[in-house]
């Protein structure tokens, strides 16, 4: 239950948590869980801070929840932004660096819980610049792997002349998916590295009677 605003400690009112997934097939549960763990570890009630969540691509900044967060920062209502990873703010290096530079100039602190980063000031901007560059390269690598995979699939006759996938063909080797999961690789990482939807990963694991919760 959300605490009445008059009873919420003043410092928590200035905290914002931002969660973003790229599509409706993805879920922000993992991001929320990690962020809540960080909040609780720092003595804050997760229900007492402001949450901004959306299903939008990170390729640009034209996102409703992000715009609302920006407005709250501009109004001086938010002084700390907590995210799962910095690339949740943007997958574009220039946008990401410019956003953080603007926030740092306003005295806003940015915390990336899984990267164990606490950014503010000039040093924070420098570190963030490197990380956003890496994130952008990762995105380009994923796109390149997807393009190579599609080209190879077309050569194998996986796609019809109209570009649709032929019935019976799957996007990746199910045995490889299962093997990676048994090696302890998270479903999200398998999805990213093989260029397939997370739902496809779970479908392969289900077909193989693999316990997806393990």
Feature tags:
single chain; alpha/beta; Rossmann fold; Arc Repressor Mutant, subunit A; 2 domains; globular; disordered N terminus
Main beta-sheet strand count, sense and barrel state: 5 strands, mixed
Computed structural class: alpha/beta
**Helix proportion range:** 40-55%
Query: How many structural domains in the coordinates?
Result: 2
Brief rundown of the structure:
With 214 residues, the chain is an alpha/beta fold.
Describe the structure.
The chain is an alpha/beta fold and 214 residues long. It has 2 domains: 8-135, Rossmann fold, CATH 3.40.50.1390; 170-208, Arc Repressor Mutant, subunit A, CATH 1.10.10. Helices cover 48% and strands 11% of the residues. The protein contains 8 helices and 5 strands. The chain is globular, with a radius of gyration of 20 Å.
Fold topology:
Blueprint: H1 10-13, E1 15-21, H2 29-41, E2 50-55, H3 64-74, E3 80-83, H4 93-105, E4 109-112, E5 117-119, H5 121-155, H6 174-182, H7 187-194, H8 198-207
Parallel strand pairs: 1-2, 1-3, 3-4
Antiparallel strand pairs: 4-5
Helix pairs in contact: 4-5, 7-8
């Amino acid at each position: 239950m959300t605490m009445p605003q008059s009873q919420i400690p003043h410092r928590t009112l200035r905290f914002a948590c931002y969660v973003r997934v790229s599509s409706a097939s993805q879920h922000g549960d993992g991001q929320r869980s990690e962020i809540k763990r960080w909040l609780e570890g720092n003595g804050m009630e997760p229900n007492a801070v402001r949450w901004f969540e959306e299903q939008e691509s990170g390729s640009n900044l034209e996102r409703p929840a992000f715009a609302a967060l920006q407005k709250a920062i501009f109004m001086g209502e938010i002084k700390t932004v907590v995210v799962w990873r910095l690339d949740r703010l943007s997958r574009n290096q220039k946008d990401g660096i410019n956003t953080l530079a603007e926030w740092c100039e306003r005295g806003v602190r940015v915390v990336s819980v899984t990267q164990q980063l606490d950014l503010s000031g000039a040093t924070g901007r420098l570190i963030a610049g490197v990380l956003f560059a890496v994130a952008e390269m990762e995105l380009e690598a994923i796109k390149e792997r997807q393009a190579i995979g599609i080209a190879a699939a077309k050569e194998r006759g996986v796609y019809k002349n109209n570009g649709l996938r032929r019935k019976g063909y799957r996007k990746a080797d199910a045995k490889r998916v299962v093997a990676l999961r048994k090696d302890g690789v998270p479903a999200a990482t398998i999805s990213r590295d093989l260029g397939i939807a997370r739902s496809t990963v779970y479908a392969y694991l289900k077909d193989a009677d693999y316990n997806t919760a393990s």
